[in-house]
Amino acid sequence: MATSNGEDGSVEVQLGQTRVLAVVKGEITQPYPDRGNEGSLAIFTEFSPMGDPAFEPGRPSEMAVELGRIIDRGLRESRAVDTESLCILSGRSVWSIRVDIHILDNYGNLVDAANLAALAALLSYRRPECTVGGDDGQQIIVHPPEVREPVGLIIHHLPIAVTFAFFGDGNFQVLDPNLKEEEVMGGRITITINSQGEICAVQKGGGVGVSASEVMRCLRIAAAKAQSMTETLKKAVEIHEIERAQRKIRRHPNLQNQIDTASSVPNPIKKIEVEMEETSEDIEPKQALDTERGIKDLSMSDSSRMKSTETEVAETLTEKPSRAGGRDLFAGGESAWGDDVKLTPLKGSPGTRSTLFPLDSDALVEFDVAARAVLRGGVSSQRMSSKLVSEPLQRQISDQIAAAAVYANQTSPLISEDARPLGPIFPRVGDMDSTEESDAALETKSVSQPEGTPVNFYFSGKKKPKKRGGSGRQD
Amino acid sequence: MATEFVSPEGLRLDGRRPPEMRHLHAVVGVVPSADGSALFHMGNTQVMAVVYGPHEVHNKAHQLHDKALVRCEYSMAAFSTGERRRRGKTDRRATELSLVIGQTLEAAIMTHLLPRSQIDIYVQVLQADGGTRAACINAASMALADAGIPMRDLVVSCAAGYLNSTPLLDLNYQEDSGGGPDLVVGYFPKLEKLSLLQMDSKVSIETFEKVLELATEGAKAVATFTREKLLENTRTLASARGHLKI
Prior knowledge:
The complex is a heterodimer of chains A (about 475) and B (about 250).
Chain A: E1 10-15, E2 18-29, E3 40-46, H1 62-76, E4 87-89, E5 93-105, H2 110-124, E6 126-127, E7 130-133, E8 139-142, E9 151-152, E10 160-167, E11 172-175, H3 179-184, E12 187-193, E13 198-210, H4 212-248, H5 257-263, H6 268-278, H7 294-305, H8 310-318, H9 326-331, H10 361-375, H11 381-386, H12 391-409, H13 413-419, H14 434-447, H15 452-458, E14 465-466
Parallel strand pairs in A: 3-5
Antiparallel strand pairs in A: 1-2, 1-14, 2-5, 4-5, 6-9, 7-8, 10-11, 10-12, 12-13
Chain B: E1 24-28, E2 36-42, E3 45-56, E4 69-76, H1 92-108, E5 117-127, H2 132-147, E6 156-163, E7 166-169, H3 173-176, E8 182-188, E9 193-204, H4 205-240
Parallel strand pairs in B: 4-5
Antiparallel strand pairs in B: 1-2, 2-3, 3-5, 6-7, 6-8, 8-9
Helix pairs in contact in B: 1-2
Pfam family, one (chain B): RNase_PH_C
Main location (chain B): cytoplasm
Family (chain B): Belongs to the RNase PH family.
């Protein structure tokens, strides 16, 4: 998900093949007579034939109105957007926020995609700051963005829409139906729920009858789905925030390493799969770190490490867990450097590096071991002591871990190229038995997969939620 | 500002108990020239439903070769609310409700028995005091039965809410605007399945389950009432034609 042209409040979401664009605009209007101190939020939908030839131009069809109202109910009734903060002068002037949702490509499940787009747009929207002043204290001064930083909307929680389609006698449910499934479904239900497990809206507009227990089951699945969706949404918004901050700071064109830091937000779901293809590529790491390719980049950074072990890696990655031997550990290094380590690398000019890290293969071995331990989520010496590890070795290990932490955070162009010919590293810490190692590797693999597993499980294979850049691609 | 919707004695604003429904009243066959019609009252909410069909599809482009086309139109009379408000047919709420009510009833009608035909359902709210959707579905259901359209089961509907930590059945307008959740259920009593389920406002899953249960119970009570009324109506018709010997 990226903002088109880097604008605030304009977001495009891609859910499988369905693409939806949401744009948020605000203007100052008079409030409703019975709600003098509240701003207003209105959702408008545009179903142009561009998205689907079945859509007719002109007045919104019933489906379009229903979609608009589902999203509206999810946001308004649950008080997701704080309308009282939109008031400028009570009873006289308030901010009126309007969200326009355009369907760019209909491949099913427009509600979910549109809801996400609307939420993301609202999260990224910034309205100009305004103050009340003037002679009589009744004049509203709207400050342009150059003068005062525009301020965002107050959003209390994120209601995520999750749609199920029913088939047969209503006893068969499918999550996130695509266009073909929608054509033949018997009925559908949309549950708008936030990550705290509060149901904001439920819409089952007729269709095949479903028992109450089925509904409750769908609710529980929706609750789990909403949590993962909220995470994805937050991450995407974070990326946008960082980008916006970047744009504000004028920098010297050479110092582009900051951008790399920002974009190294990992996407564990894709990492593992993508890696399988990418490992054989000998690409210059961190080449194009736009958010779209964020996934590829992470694997690229790995690929540079694993250059010499391409074939092995490819093999070992295709088989799932349970392996023995240290060599596989390294191959599994997916949690690697992309995760909690900000490997800002390789992109800055050598001039920005202060010192070259002194390397020799022995030191490297030790550091790798320790670094891996660090990256496994802070494996401390305590853990090691649970296995039969000797005292002095333990000390050594903890020293190495400390050093590795530094190592991990430092950067050097040398590391990437020269270090990796080392290939798989057989840990000097031979006391740790190999099963423990492979368990640890499994652990990392499973740790980085929690998002992946439920997603794969529930989605019907073809579709995975992806957020892609809109017209503002930074290619 | 917290209005007391449930008094300490357990009485609501209009003197009902939380799981108590409003008074129901129904009349079948109020519009003689229509194929089927019914009037349904739920307390102060009064709704009229009229059914025309099955007849030939007016717009051949929309004709379905294997089943009947069901169209529904929901409208609120200008005099139905406290303040007179002229609403156009393009009112977004009316559009959504038309779609939703139509789809709910379509699930009950055996459309495969009437291919290439059209069934029109018109629902008009004459007096609105909360729960208009529920009353509309009940009225339409009776009107369809009056029109003799084959159905899998009756569709009955009831609304429920949650205020002052109590699940309340059949909210009136005041309770509806109280800010709590408003859950409407469209239920098949014999099949024991839900066709329509709509809810707005934030609730936890546990609360939702409680309110859903209450609404379903309410719907079952409406079903008993509806069936009784329809039987009564049939008996009257049959005896009028001399089929029944009293």
